[in-house]
Amino acid sequence: MTLLPRPLLSWPRLYRTVLSAALFAGLAASAQAQPMPPGGGPEDIQMEGRGLQVFVSPSGQPFRAKPGEPYPVAAWFAQADKDHDGKISHDEFQADAFAFFQMLDRNHDKYISSPENTFYENEVAPEITQIDPRIDQPTNFHADRDSDMQTDNDPTLGRYQKSIQGASQYGVIDEPQPIRGADANYDFRISVDEWTNATNQRFSVLDANGDGFITADELPKTPAQRALEAPKKGPGAKKKRFGW
Ligand SMILES: [Ca+2]
Ligand SMILES: [Ca+2]
Ligand SMILES: [Ca+2]
Predict the structure, then answer these.
(1) How far is 156 from 183, CA to CA, in rounded Å?
(2) What per-residue confidence (pLDDT) applies to 153?
(3) Which residues pair with 214 in a beta bridge?
(4) Which residues pair with 55 in a beta bridge?
(5) CA nearest to 74, candidates 236, 230, 222, 238
(6) Does the pLDDT at position 35 exceed 80?
(7) Of the four, 102, 141, 172, 240, which is 20 to 30 A from 191 by CA?
(8) DSSP assignment, residue 219?
C-alpha cells in the first residue's frame, strides 16, 4: 500500500472514512438514497433490446443510450469528471469507482459479497453475461507469447488471441468481469482495499501518457462502439482501436 502514495495520500479523507465503520455507515446511508446507474435496470434493456449502445465503465457500471444518442462513454466521462475540466483526475476516478462500490454493497458491510455480485450480474449489468454476435471476435490471430493477457493454463497460448467477452465487449479495459476481477485473494468477496487497488490499476492502464489524468482521446473505442460504427460486418469493416 505504501507503494501507492498518490492515491492514498491524495485521497486520504475518503480512504480513512471507509476504514472507519462508524463513518462508513453514514456514507452508506447517503449512498442508499442514490439512484441506480444511469440507463436504469433490466426493464430498460428489455425495452430497448440487446443494443450495442452500452458502455461499461472501468469499475463495471453500465451506461446505456438509445439509438441515435451519443455512445454512452460520454455519460460515464461526464459523471466521473466532477469538476468538468474535461479530464478525469486520479481522485475523480477513485471517487467514481467508490460510489459504484457503495451501490453494489447493498447491505453496507464494506464488502461486495457473492450474492451482491450475483445481483450485479443479473440485475445491474446483465449485458456482460451474454456474447453479442455483432461484436467482432479475433480469429486465428497469432498473439505474442509474452503477452500480458495470456496465462499459463490458456490452451490457446501462442495460437489465438483470446475472445472478447463479458464487460470487455462494452469497456475500455479488457476485463470481462470487473467485480470478480478485483477479488485479489479469491475469497469471493471484494473488500474496499481490493477495490481501491483494482481501481488504481485501472487508472494506470487508462492514463496512457502517465500525466495523472484520463482524457477522452486516451480512451480506446470499445468493441461495441467499433461494431456500431462499422458499416457492416465483413472484410471491409475497419477495426480502429484508438480514438473516439
Ligand atoms: Ca476533472
Ligand atoms: Ca456487502
Ligand atoms: Ca477478496
Answers:
(1) 25
(2) 62
(3) 88
(4) 63
(5) 222
(6) no
(7) 172
(8) S
User: Residue 100's closest CA among 186, 199, 166?
Assistant: 199
CA dist 99 and 93 (Å) reads: 10
Residue listed under C-alpha cell 472501468: 58
Q: What is d(CA 197, CA 242) in angstroms, rounded to the nearest whole number?
A: 26
Nearest residue to 216 via CA among 192, 238, 191, 243: 243
Between the CA of 121 and the centroid of ligand 2 the distance, in Å, is 15
Which residues, at least 6 apart from 228, have a Cβ–Cβ distance to it below 8 Å?
A: 52, 53, 71
For ligand 2, a single-atom ion, which residues have Cβ within 5 Å? 105, 107, 109, 111, 113
Question: What is the Cα 132 distance to its own chain's centre?
Answer: 17
Task: Output the CA 73–ligand 1 centroid distance in Å.
Answer: 15
Q: Which residue has the cell 460504427?
A: 229
DSSP single-letter state for residue 209: T
Check residue 98 and give its pLDDT. Answer: 98
Burial of 3 (0-12, 13-18, 19+ CB in 10 A): exposed
Tell me the average pLDDT across 23-50. 42
| Nearest alpha-carbon partner for 1 in 191, 155, 130, 165 | 191
The 3-class SS string of 159-195 reads CCCCCCCHHHHHCCCCCCCCCHHHCCCCCCCEEHHHH
What's the rounded Cα separation, in Å, for the pair 226 and 233?
Answer: 11
